[in-house]
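The records we work with from here on pair a chain with its fold. Taken together, the tokens spell out the fold as the letters spell out the chain. The record below shows the convention in full.
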Amino acid sequence: MKREGLVKTENRLFTRKGHKYEFIKRADNLGENNLPREIRIDGQPALIDRQTHARVLAAGTDVPEQAPSFAIPLDAVGIAGKTVWVLLPEGRLPFTAAITVDLPGRTRGIHMSRLEQAVAELHERPFARLSHYARALVEKVVERQRGSTARVSLTGKRPLLRQSKISRQVSVDPLLVRVEAVISRDDPAGITVSNGIGVCHITSCPCTQVYNLDVFTERGKCPMPTHSQRSQTWLHLRGAGEAPAYQELLACLENSLHLTQDLLKRPDEAEIVLKSHLHPQFAEDAVRETARSVGRMFGPVLPGDTGVIIESLSLESIHIHDVCCRLETSLGAISSLL
């Protein structure tokens, strides 16, 4: 429909203003996620007319479909560092995406623009979870390419509001998130999804603390001094079914680690420092305690072949190096040790 400068497309109404169309907010389409938006267009005349473009496209060579100079298959081809905006319950949040597909040996290249088209088609669709967006995107990708396996990886941050223990102050902190979806053309229903989150926490070295037991014999009830450091631990669960919500993963980490936050008053700081010294942890302890929490929470409800990946990085305070620890196993293997 086009009438007096108005254009209607896909149930949206736009008005022409200079070299752009602006979205008109309609009374029957109001809501917190339906904010006024605009689609900008180039108002300058095209240098090549549409008929010429159509003729060339119809008669021209599709270069990506050509045979390559060396017919070896490629594992992954696509785009990386792409910012996608996902409409989630918290609002429209940005994530960095890597979108790839494998390439047969007979085909020279992928159709890059089709990846961007898939992203554009999902821009206005709301999603309850980030993993649902990854599923929808990876399905569109594999449908439009020659490859048999497509992968979508998303990394970014979500807002995390946590109340401190003593002052009850609410801190607005970032929750690190990482989601990956993999699909095979031969089994489109068997999408594998990995849902992961990362948190910051404090660790206190138990080694120095034990040593100081012999140094300070008159210590009273105060725990022994030791060095502490800021640490970061990631938890990923991977499987073919519905991925656990990030709130469930966060509960595992909260039960295993001494989580930190930005807004802390002095009583809160004293509390968390004392707690970390009463229960000191190596990076190894952080990973193992998280694994135990995962087994207790998800062992009874998820398949035993669910993949579990836990990674911890300790930014050492008195050493120049950092300390890292990683565990990659199955939920069944963890549950068998409980």
About this structure: The two ends are 65 Å apart (CA to CA). The domain at 186-338 is CATH 3.10.270.10 (Urate Oxidase).
